[in-house]
Amino acid sequence: MNLKDIEHVKELLNTPQKIAIIPHKNPDGDAIGSTLGLQHYLRSLGQDAVIVSPNDSPKFLKWLPGCETILNFEKENSQAQKALQEATLIFTLDFNHLGRVGQMQSFLEEATAKFIMIDHHQEPSDYAIVTYSDVTMSSTCEMVYNFIDYLGDTDKITADIANCLYTGIMTDTGSFRFRSTTSKTHKIVAELIEKGADNTQIHSNVYNTNTPSRLHLLGCALKNMVILEEYNTAYITLSQEELDTYKFQKGDTEGFVNYCLTLDGIRFAAIFIENKEEGIIKISLRSEGDFSVNEFSRLYFQGGGHNNAAGGKSDVSLEETAAYFVNLLPNHKNDLVK
């Protein structure tokens, strides 16, 4: 953030606001951690701040302090609409295009509030009066810490804020192993622990939540894995029938795609998950090295994200989507096989 933006935000927050904080659809640890962390901070300033989420968050994030206050647009529609209509200031976190909020998009487009964006994905839209965008950041939670720091308020970071922000940084960095994890990230994490983040308990709450059905679903996913050694690529498919068989719950497939990258020589990984209710195939892409899955997803699958982690979707069948993906690989062989 530049000095002009910082002063603008300070000016806005020096007067009472009705604030709505928005994560993207199907929110992950970074989206929920950043919105809750920001909500706690804004409330400490005496602001009326509420989180409106396009849909529900995964079960493994429900323990986060304040999670019970989040308005679910799908289930609490009238309250959520009211919050958006009455908002004088809207923060959008962990996404940079209003198309990422599903059915909420039209309500945000019609909102009379001023927008502030905090996000670390590529190619941000220009809907906000203040845009804090930095693709080099490990996570939006790291950026929320910086946002609070820019406003001179790190002394206001409580244990609740610290636990929320630590969770998002941990999940979005793959427990601090991704390339986006910098020395600054570790310094911020150390500060959060000093402020009360319980790193051991957070890790347990997020990762030690397996159920027998989730492990059986993981077994099914690994059995479905296809390895294409000639392209240093592997992918997984999961049909709606398989999800139903193993009693799929939101968040159950988190991290499944990363198993492909544990194979020796694999640089590109994908998972294709059928969603009959939405009529799409949900796609997650991961890579190692300099192969940009962000560019790949934007080019072929209506998505985007980061260089090594991106998402997208397909409107054709699971089988057609997987076949299309495989047929694309020869176009990128020189980048995948080095």
Write a short abstract of this structure.
With 338 residues, this protein is an alpha/beta fold. It is built from 13 helices and 12 strands.
If you had to describe this structure to a student in words, what would you say it looks like?
With 338 residues, the protein is of the alpha/beta class. It has two domains: 3-207, inorganic pyrophosphatase (n-terminal core); 212-336, Diaminopimelate Epimerase, Chain A, domain 1 (Roll), CATH 3.10.310. It is 38% helix and 18% strand. The protein contains 13 helices and twelve strands. The chain has helices at residues 3-13, 29-44, 77-86, 105-110, 140-150, 159-172, 183-194, 199-207, 212-223, 240-245, 293-300, 318-328, 333-336, and strands spanning 18-22, 48-53, 71-72, 89-93, 114-119, 130-133, 226-228, 233-238, 268-275, 280-287, 304-305, 309-314. It has a six-stranded parallel β-sheet, sandwiched between helices. α2 (29-44) packs antiparallel against α6, α6 (159-172) packs antiparallel against α7 and α6 crosses α8 (199-207). The chain is globular.
Supply the key terms.
Diaminopimelate Epimerase, Chain A, domain 1, 338 residues, 6-stranded parallel beta sheet, 13 helices, alpha/beta, inorganic pyrophosphatase (n-terminal core), 2 domains
Shape: globular
Number of domains: 2
List unreliable stretches of 5+ residues: none
What is the correct CATH architecture of the largest domain?
A: Alpha-Beta Complex
Question: Strand-and-helix sequence, N→C?
Answer: HEHEEHEHEEHHHHHEEHEEHEEHH
User: Quick one: CATH superfamily of the largest domain?
Assistant: inorganic pyrophosphatase (n-terminal core)
The name of the CATH topology of the largest domain is: inorganic pyrophosphatase (n-terminal core)
Distance between the termini: 38 Å
